[in-house]
Design brief:
The chain has 188 residues and is an alpha+beta fold. The chain has a domain of 123 residues: NADH Oxidase, CATH 3.40.109.10. Helix content is 38%, strand content 18%. It contains 6 helices and 5 strands. Strands 1, 2, 3, 4 and 5 form a 5-stranded antiparallel sheet that branches. Bound molecules: flavin mononucleotide.
Length: 188
């Protein structure tokens, strides 16, 4: 697949199954991630990869987080939370690590955007290698218990929980949006 075809055909994997990218493939994916544009060369990101039994622990964390918010949640609702961790064989938490250095003038929003670009590179690299992925967040991404459970520090933010695997849905070739509403020539 050439690069334009790659860009024009990426779409989220709604249903994802085994196999996940191998360790060697994932290394390639991470190398693509850290090619993201990065104002000030701050490298304002880190990535947590979660596979196998790690996903069970992630499921526990989803359940604990849900219980803290809704102590009377039903077993069915908690089961749905646990299942979120099992959406795909590989889960990649993309963390924006905001610089704490007093001399850093790069605005926080630009550091968050850089981490977002890294996340997008992960989606595209996965697609290039024949896998599919979906970028999720949900309430947990902004939840203190969930974040500390994953070991995040106060200056760190979850900007994406990426689920990566092999596409098991039939939505791979959906057309992209019409560009007309999003573009104008300036000055008119
Ligand atoms: C920062 C961010 C967070 C997102 N969080 C969620 C989410 O929690 N749940 C969800 O269903 N989609 C979420 N999405 C949207 C999906 O990743 C996806 O882009 C959307 O469903 C459109 O599908 P497509 O990527 O195939 O065009 C998020 C997207 C971004 C950029």
């Amino acid at each position: 697949m050439d690069a334009m075809e790659l860009l024009l055909t990426r779409s989220s994997g709604v249903k994802l199954t085994d196999p996940a990218p191998s360790d060697a493939e994932f290394e390639q994916i991470l190398k693509a991630a850290v090619r993201a544009p990065d104002h000030g060369r701050l490298k304002p990101w880190r990535f947590l990869s979660i596979r196998g039994a790690g996903r069970e622990k992630l499921g526990d964390l989803y359940v604990e987080t849900a219980l803290l918010a809704s102590p009377h949640a039903t077993p069915e609702a908690l089961g749905r939370e646990r299942d979120k961790a099992l959406r795909a064989p590989l889960v990649v938490v993309v963390v924006a690590r905001l610089s704490m250095l007093p001399n850093v003038k790069v605005p926080e929003v630009e550091q968050l955007l850089s981490a977002g670009a890294a996340a997008q590179n992960i989606l595209l690299a996965a697609h290039a290698l024949g896998y599919a992925a979906v970028w999720k967040t949900g309430d947990v991404a902004y939840n203190h218990h969930f974040k500390t459970g994953l070991g995040l520090a106060a200056n760190e933010h979850i900007i994406g929980i990426l689920f990566v695997g092999t596409r098991a849905d039939a939505m791979g070739n959906k057309p992209g949006p019409d560009i007309a509403p999003f573009h104008s020539v300036w000055p008119a």
